[in-house]
Each structure stands twice: as C-alpha cells, then as structure tokens.
Amino acid sequence: MAKGKKKEKKEKKDKNAPKRAISAFFFYQKERREPLKKEKPNLSNKELISTMSAEWNKMKDTDKKKYVELAEQDKKRYEKEKASYDAKQKSAKKSVKKDE
User: Fold this and answer.
1) Pick from 13, 49, 71, 83: most CB atoms within 10 A?
2) Model confidence over 3-22: pLDDT tens digits?
C-alpha cells in the first residue's frame, strides 16, 4: 500500500441479518453434487464444479424450471426476511435516538 493512503475499514456484518437468496444453479449443485461424487469419485472439488457447470449450461430451460422455481421461492423468503429485518433495524435506531 502506498504511503499516505488510509485503508478503509470494512463494516462488520450483522450476524442476525437474513441470508441472501440462493440461485437456481446452487439448488442444482446441492442436488447433483453427491450423485456426481459417487459416479466419479476421483474428481477434485474444482473438477466437480466445472462438470456441474457444463451440465447446467447444456440443460434445457424445461429441465432447469424446477431449480428456477426453487430460487424464486427462496428469493421471496429472503425479501420477506429482509423487510422484517430492516423494519426491526429502523425501529431500533429510532428508539436509540429517542433515548439520546
């Protein structure tokens, strides 16, 4: 790092914040990883992911539909949890300001 430049401090993550929504590909990976490991036990993690990525890219949209629907449901879950979390954060900040 050059002299005179200050490093920005990273804001700490709130452990109570909701987990982000999972993508359709990640749902596919969750389902496919174990069977693929059994089929090809000699593959490294990197090779497993590459193989799953190639399979995902070759899949038809109709085959992906199941995973896309799961991702949409998870996105709704995240948005609901995020809205609730944000409302709690706002009310907590208001109560802190009132106390001051």
Assistant:
1) 71
2) 666 777 777 888 888 999 99
70 near 24, Cβ under 8 Å? yes
| Beta strands in 1-100, from DSSP E residues, in sequence order | none
Instruction: Dig out the tokens for 20 from the structure.
Output: 């982000």
Q: Where are the domains of the chain?
A: 24-99
**CATH fold for domain 24-99:** DNA Binding (I), subunit A (1.10.30)
**What's CA 39's distance to the chain center, in Å?**
27
18-44 confidence digits (pLDDT tens): 999 999 999 999 999 999 999 999 999
- Compute the distance between CA of residue 82 and CA of residue 76 in angstroms, rounded to an integer: 10
d(C-alpha 31, C-alpha 100), whole Å:
51
Task: Name the token pair of 81.
Answer: 């949890």
Measured distance between the N- and C-terminal CA atoms of the chain, rounded to whole angstroms: 40
